[in-house]
Structure formats: structure tokens, C-alpha cells
Amino acid sequence: MTLKSILTGAVMALGLGTTAAVAQDDKTKVGFIYVGPIGDGGWTYEHDQGRLAVEEHFGDRVETVYQESVPEGADATRAITQMALNGADLIFTTSFGFMEPTINVAKKFPNVKFEHATGFKTAPNVSTYSARFYEGRAIQGHIAGKMTESNIVGYIASYPIPEVIRGINSAFIHARKANPDVQFKIIWAYTWFDPAKEADAATALIEQGADVILQHTDSTAPQAAAEKAGNVISFGQASDMAEYKPSPRVSSIIDNWKPYYIARTQAVIDGTWESQQTWDGIGPGMVGIGEITDAVPADVKEEALALKASIAAGEYHPFTGPLKKQDGSDWLAEGETADDGTLLGMNFYVEGLDAEIPQ
Amino acid sequence: MDLGSINPILLLASIMAASTPILLAAIGELVVERAGVLNLGVEGMMITGAICGFAVAVGTGSPATGFVAGAAGGAVLSLLFALLTQVALANHVASGLALTLFGLGLSALLGQGYVGVKPPPTARLDIPVLGDIPVLGPILFSHDLMVYVALALVAVVWAMLKYSRAGLILRAVGENHDAAHALGYKVVRVRVLAIAFGGACAGLGGAYLSLVRVPQWTEGMTAGAGWIALALVVFASWKAGRVLLGAWLFGGVSVLQLNLQAAGVAIPVEYLSMSPYLITIVVLVIMSADKSRAPASLGRIFHASQ
């Protein structure tokens, strides 16, 4: 036997051994791609809580991996590919900007399941999931409209995508219902996470008279700015942001991804995973409303809770006609509710908003 | 559009505060680069300073101690860079990038118990008489101490580089380290000191972010401010005065564009959003049309035997 054949045999044995090891390793590997750091106290923090819930629920049967602060765009493709190459069976990509990268990588890895948050594109191995944040925005809008004294509500928006525009519309509709004189001032930060910029944006809005700050960015910086200014109220975004209770933070929208992440991981383990589109709201518990603090007058709090109950029960839809678009054209007739297709692609403001959507 | 809703006094006052972190980091990096060292770890040193300052300020209840700790944190981290590049003769660029990654990770680790904690408030200096001057008072004389420290630092660095013997030696080391060495100057010692100074300044800038400007600790909170400071040094052609101008321009336009957006000005948001970068670069590039250039030994490794 020549040295060469011995070596070949050794290599083959090694190869077989490795294959066997892989086959024995029945742990399901679940990967998470985050747009910000897990310590942001908001969006990414809640996704990571979901990841930890998966670990806790499945124990040794599941291994989770994550990568934080992944930029949206080309670099995301690299990060997702890397995760798929490292043997992930299920990958959650948790920002709107990961949509194209997720679809592209999914084509190359037909055996890996992908779940993209807040997007609208699916594939045989790509599901989408999102929460009806706009239901929570309706409640925020109501409290904002009732509580503002300057009649100016400041809104820190991130990127002009349907999810963000939906939130602005929903908050505005309900603020106007509560207070016909209310005006929205909107700043587009063009970032999901930049505490200094978010704080500057909040300060600019407050200096221009806003006494309510709504945010659709991920860090708690606007809360700190509102607190510093005093006499300004704000709402926790994506996470409870309870450390700013009872004021400025008077309530919050909490994303609860835990049940969904556990259910989808279970589906992969059972082999029953199928591509689907999930969009749940307050009713099924994907959107939570954080404690409304005593800084809110009792009657307003009661109205807000009643609104929450009727949305949760499915009796009331935040986009119920009569509603007009910003240009004055009719959108929804009396009693008509918006369909999901329009909501998912929403690219217009409702009547009364004095601003333009960046194109 | 409602320009009347912008209060120019408050706006100018926020510009002073908004430009302070990058000004501090940039003036430190300027000294480092004038000594011939390219330290790309500014972001890492800044965020380490941010958490060190935050943690100590929360622990002691004194923002002043926090700022000292922030500077110390940045300086200690920069000494790691000094060890790599000046003693082990490692490549500046690679070491600097590694320092940034290390700093981001280290700060996340140190900061785990500090998410959601509120720092003690940093008092504004209410300077009597001067602070009461209408218009100028609120703009110039009612900030916290660090704003003035940053400005003083720029003046000191400028004067030191231009007029002092120490500044001359530092520049000599940066321009031609072999000649400086032949003249008997301790090249490595000068550079290590410069690196530590740069680290302290970056740490101070970071602490200003976490203690005054935001004020809270959030992972990754510098969000690229260190890279802006680095770019500023280059576009300012390694001149202290221009660094100040650049920092004010960048900080100013950043705050101004947010105010214009809130006021509903009819300029597309995309242009407003890119304006801080664009305007700062254009102004500084036009100004650097004179014969300024980088220190000749910038980024080159020095060993006394060569």
C-alpha cells in the first residue's frame, strides 16, 4: 500500500466521520440578523428577547446565532450568506432593508428557511412576518391629541417606507379625532439607529413647539431629550422603554416576537414549515401596549384602553372611512375599512397632514 | 413652510453643543496625525470614552469625574494602539481598524449594566453678566463647561503647533522621522504621547455624547461620529482652525437640516439629509486649494535602526 493510498483512505475516513458527525448533530440552528445593537433598548432588543425565548423554550435542541448592527444593503447579503453557509436551518432577518438581500440569498440556499420582518416579498423558502404597529399608533395618536397643549406633535420618522407612513397616518387620524386643531411636524432621520441624531431631531421638534414626541427610530435617545426638555410627553417605540416612566414616556408600543419565533422554530423542527405571510396585531398579542402612566388624565386613559379593547376584539379598524387622501381624493367611504394590500403598500398621507413624503 | 418657528438663538446654541463631540475627537486626531501616526481607531476610543465616562459619572454622581474617566478610558485604549504600532511596529491602518472593532465590543461589554440608567445632569455654566447679554448670552455664554474646554483645546493645540518648541518637535517627527531621530529627538516617545493625547480627546468627545448630548448609554451610540472626525482632519488639511470650522459646519448643518425639516421647508428631504456631508466637504476642499498637504511621514512605521 502506497503512502498515497493510505492518505486517501485517511482523508475518506475523516470525511465519513465528519458526515456522520453532521448527521448526528440534530440541533436546529436558528440565525438572526439585526439592524442595530441588541442593547438599543428598542427594536433590536425585542427581537433578541425573542431569540432568548427560543433558546429557553427548546433548550439543547436548538442553537441560536445572531449578528448585530448589520447595515442594510450589500453588506447584509454577505452576513446572511455567511450565516446560511455556517449551517443555519432557519434565519430571521429583522429589518425592512434586508428584503432584497434575503430574497437573493434564499435563492442560493433552497434548503434553508428564511423569515423576513416587515417586508412584502416571499419565495418558497421565504416567509414574511410583521406586526400591525399602526393599531398601537392609533392609541398613541389619541393620547397625543388629547394631551398636547401647543397642538403640535413632533414625529421622528426613519425611512419613507409603507410601514412608517402607515404609522404616521394612523397616529394623525386619531390625534385629529381627539383634537381637530392638532398639527404634525415630521422629521425624516434616514436612520434606524443613531442616538445623537435622534436626540437632535427630538430637540429640534421641541424647540419648534412640539410637546408630544412620537418616534419611529430604535433608540431611547428621544426619550432622554424629552425628559431633558421637561413638560414633553413621549411614547416607547418597539420596546417598553420603561426606564422613562412615568414621564416623559406615558405609554408604549411593545413588539412581542417570542410566540412567533417559537412557533416557527417548532415548524422547522417538525418539518411543517411553509412559506406564509403573517401580520398580527393587538388581538393575537404581537403588538402590546405598555402601561399608560398616571401622567395621562384618567378619562383619557380610559378612552385609550377602550380603543385598545375594540381594536383587539376586531370591532374597530384604525383605518375606517370616511377618509380622504392628502390631495383631497376619496380613499375610504363611510364605514369602509382599508384592505391589507393598500396598507402594505401605503405611499400617501391622509387628508390634513401638512407635509410631503420624500420620494 | 414656517421658518418663523425656528428660534435662531436656540438653533445656534444647539449647534455649539452638537459640534463638540466631533470637534474634540478631531482635534485629538489632528495632533496624532501631525506626529506622523494614522490612528483609525477614533470610533473605538470615542465609544470606550463614552461608556467609561458614563459609568464613572453614574457611580460617583459627578459628571466632572465622568469626563476625566472618559478621557482616561480613551487614552488607555489608545496606548494599546501605541504598543502595537510603536513597539511591535504593526501596520497603522490595520491596528487602527482593529482598535475600532475592539472598542465597540469592549464598550458593549462594559455597558451591559448601564442601559436605561440616567446620568447625573451636567450643569450649565450660567456666567453672570455675560450670560445676560441679549442674543449673544444664550448663544455663547450659557453652555456646559465642556463646550469651552473643547474651544480652548483647539486654541491651545493651534498655538502649540505653531509657536512652541514642543510643537516644532512634534511636527518634525511627523514630517521626517529619520531626520528627527538623527537630531536626537525621541520619535517613539513623542508619538506615544501624541497617541495618548488623541485617545484622551476622543474619549472626552465620547463622554460628551453619553453625558450631555444624548444623554444616556446605548450600545454603538457614536454611530460613526469617530469616522466623521477622521474625515474632518483630512479635509481640514491638518490645520486646527479649519478643524473647528469643519466641526461647526458639520454640526451646524446637521442641526439646521433637522430644524428645516420640522419647519416644513420645501427642499426635498434627501438633499437636506446629505447636506451636512456635502457642505462640509465642499467648503473644506475649496479652502485646501492652497499648498497644504499631509505630514510626510504619516502612517509610516519608524524603527531607529533603519
From TrEMBL, chain A:
Residues annotated as signal peptide: 1-23
GO annotations of cellular component type: plasma membrane
Keywords: Signal
InterPro entries (UniProt xref): ABC-Purine-Binding, Peripla_BP_I, PnrA-like
Domain ABC transporter substrate-binding protein PnrA-like span(s) in chain numbering: 27-312
SUPFAM superfamilies: Periplasmic binding protein-like I
CDD domains in alphabetical order: PBP1_BMP-like
The protein, known as: Nucleoside-binding protein
Native organism taxonomy: Bacteria, Pseudomonadati, Pseudomonadota, Alphaproteobacteria, Rhodobacterales
UniProtKB/TrEMBL annotation, chain B:
Keyword Transmembrane: yes
InterPro entries: ABC_transp_permease (IPR001851)
Pfam family, one: BPD_transp_2
Source organism of the structure: Roseovarius pacificus
Gene Ontology terms, MF aspect: transmembrane transporter activity
Keyword Isomerase recorded: no
Annotated protein name in UniProt: Nucleoside ABC transporter membrane protein
Main location: membrane
Transmembrane spans: 6-25, 37-58, 64-84, 96-115, 135-161, 192-211, 217-236, 243-265, 271-289
Membrane disposition: Multi-pass membrane protein
One cellular-component annotation, GO: plasma membrane
Localisation: Cell membrane
Record keywords, A-Z: Cell membrane, Membrane, Transmembrane, Transmembrane helix
